[in-house]
Each structure stands twice: as C-alpha cells, then as structure tokens.
Write a structure and sequence with these properties.
The protein is α/β, with parallel strands linked by helices. It is about 35% helix and about 15% strand. Strands 1-2-4-5-6-7-8-9 form an eight-stranded parallel barrel, surrounded by five helices. β4, α5 (about 130-140) and β5 (about 145-150) form a beta-alpha-beta unit. The two termini are about 15 Å apart. Bound molecules: SN-glycerol-3-phosphate and calcium ion. This is Glycerophosphodiester phosphodiesterase. Its EC number is 3.1.4.46. GO terms for molecular function: glycerophosphodiester phosphodiesterase activity.
C-alpha cells in the first residue's frame, strides 16, 4: 500500500484535494487533470449515491454550492445530475463542466494515478454504498492502489470486512483519547485528522504502532512549516503544486 511505503521511508505523499480545487471546480475532471499537472501523488475525491443507484463524485449533500441546481444530490437521478453545470460557479471558463460518475473518473484515472475515495452521506452514507464501491474497484482491478476514507467509521469497518486488501482511513476533526484503539476497532489503516490535531509525538506513535498518519489541507507555507517536518505519510492540498514544491525542496517527497 502506497502510504505504508511512504511511512516506512519517512516520506510524504502529496494528495490533490478534490483534484486541485484551488485551481478548478472541485471534484470535476478539470480539477483532477490539474491535480496531475500539479504533481500530486494521489487524488482525493468524495462520493454519493444518486437516486437511481449510481456512484457520483461530489462533496456536499446538496448540489447548491457547486452547481447551478438545488436540492439533495441523493434525491436526483443520474440524468438530473448530468443536467447540472458543475463549473460555472467556479468561473465562466469552466461553464458546461459536468458532475462525473465514479466510473467515468476511474475510466480516466485507473492507469494514471491512485485515488483516495471518501464516502460521504448525511447523516449516514446510503446503505449499500460500500458494496457498490468495492464492486467497481474490483472491476477496475485497482484494489491495491486505492484508499477508501470517511468520517463514517462504521463504513470503514464494513469496507475492510468485505475487502481486506483495500486501505481504509478514518477522518476526524478533533482528537481521540485512544486513537490506536479506534483504529483497531474500525479495522482501519490510517488516521486522518485535520492538520491542526497532529503533533510530532502523535505521528510517531501512530507510525510506531504500524498505522498511518495522514491529514489535509496544507495550502500555505505557514501550515507546511508546521506539519511537513512531522513526516506525516500523506498530506492533502487544494494547491498540490505548492505542497509538491515545498516537499521536493526539502527532499522529503517520494
Ligand atoms: O481528505 C479528507 C478531506 O477531504 C475531508 O474533508 O470536507 O474536504 O471532505 P472534506
Ligand atoms: Ca473529502
């Protein structure tokens, strides 16, 4: 698994957050293409399930912020989702950009770059999303290089129980009294709190116990100055080129 190699070597992978969403509309193909251009090692993205059962790539539960439509994404059919413009709110040059399905993204990404796929859902993921996701990843034969991450820890446990070869990661916004116990209970490989919650000691503890420390988002030099020296195995950024340059300058990348 990619992040294990980075962890063992004391290196840091650059994760393009929602592609490279500082430069292009988040979770769309222009953003993912930009993520590769920026030198990301991994692309991060968010998924929901459409009303008619398709895995679609979007962060929010509602389409309002990022598209010209309104309402919950999970209440729309794929045809309705495909009618949305997911680019114009970011900038007129992106007008006409569509919400990708996960399958469309995998068709493009499978031989280019590994993915960190985040399962969304408010308050919980759609029942069956884990099985659908694993089926698709098996079809593309990309289980070994894909990570599945989520704030929904039950979902991570389920993923690992169905497909032990998939790397899983727990997202949190806060701190845990016993992170190792939580990782074990959810059968997860990585702990991924917001960057504010890491210290060098905590990173070292997680790595020493054989788990992976990861985080997001390092967009400024000040944040990079604080977290890159901790040797976190992977760090997300909305501007992956900035983080790429910073890490490469210090010889800490892969
Ligand atoms: O990569 C983790 C990060 O994406 C989690 O937060 O809100 O951007 O999905 P969010
Ligand atoms: Ca995410």
């Amino acid at each position: 698994m990619l992040e294990y190699d980075a962890m063992r070597q004391g290196k840091t992978l650059v994760v393009g957050h929602r592609g490279a969403c500082g430069y292009a509309p988040e979770n769309t193909m222009p953003s993912f293409r930009k993520g590769i251009e920026c030198g990301a090692d991994i692309l991060e993205l968010d998924i929901h399930v459409s009303l008619d059962g398709e895995l679609v790539v979007m962060h929010d539960s509602e389409v309002d912020r990022t598209t010209d439509g309104t309402g919950p994404i999970e209440g729309k059919t794929l045809k309705e989702i495909k009618a949305l413009d997911a680019g114009v709110k970011f900038g007129p040059q992106f007008a006409g950009t569509k919400v990708p399905t996960l399958k469309e993204l995998l068709d493009w990404a499978w031989n280019k770059i590994p993915l960190a796929i985040e399962i969304k859902g408010d308050p919980f993921p759609t029942p069956g999303v884990e099985e659908k996701l694993i089926k698709l990843l098996r079809e593309f034969r990309i289980l070994s290089e894909t990570m599945v991450i989520s704030f929904h820890h039950e979902s991570m446990k389920k993923i690992k129980e169905i497909e032990p070869s998939l790397a899983t990661g727990l997202l949190i916004m806060g701190e845990l009294v016993d992170p190792v116990q939580v990782l074990k209970a959810s059968k997860s490989d990585s702990l991924r709190p917001g960057w504010q919650y890491w210290s060098k000691d905590k990173v070292d503890l997680i790595h020493k116990k054989g788990f992976i420390a990861s985080t997001w988002n390092a967009d400024t030099e000040a944040v990079m100055d604080r977290i890159v020296p901790m040797r976190i195995a992977s760090i997300g950024s909305n501007f992956p080129d900035r983080l790429r340059k910073y890490i490469d300058r210090q010889g800490k990348g892969i």
